[in-house]
Amino acid sequence: MQEESKVMLKTRDILIKALFGLMGAGLAYLLVYTLTYLPNGYELVSKQQGVLHIQEYNLVGLKEDKIKWQPPSEEEDWRLKALKTKIPNLMVSYFILFTSIFITLFLTLYESSKGKRIIGDLIASGLTVLFAFLTLLRNLDRIKELL
Fold first, then answer.
1. What is the pLDDT of residues 98-110, one digit of tens each?
2. Burial class of residue 37, CB neighbours in 10 A (0-12, 13-18, 19+)
3. Which residues pair with 5 in a beta bridge?
4. Domain-located, residue 55
5. Dihedrals φ, ψ of 98, to 5°?
6. Is 43 helix (H, G, I), strand (E, B) or coil?
7. What is the pTM of this model?
8. Concatenated DSSP letters for 90-143?
9. Does the residue 52 lie in any domain?
10. Number of domains making up the chain
11. Cα–Cα distance, 107 to 88 (Å, whole number)
């Protein structure tokens, strides 16, 4: 009987953590893809023959300028192709960053409400968020270089 209750508690704990993961991913999807919250980001509005229309967002995530971009010469057509792939990939980077932030927040609140020490979890989660943030910054820098 004792062993069954331990298994049930362990299963419940795993299911709650999985639910937090799904909630974090759902909120991040809503934020990035539905509400288009992209601080300092770019969104590909339209692609026409050799011309890209790009929406730029400020630090708060509000729309700023629309950029009409075309390669300066035929030899630099590779930049157009690179931007067509880098800008949609930027949204994936935002999704991963926000998902890791939400999951970290939910799991930290859950573990602290149980009275557990959370310093080790915070360090591991912080490293995950840091890795996602650095990946996002690298993608933003690459897009700025191409523009």
1. 999 998 888 888 8
2. middle
3. none
4. no
5. -65, -35
6. strand
7. 0.81
8. HHHHHHHHHHHHHHHHHHHHHHHHTT---HHHHHHHHHHHHHHHHHHHHHHHHH
9. no
10. 1
11. 29
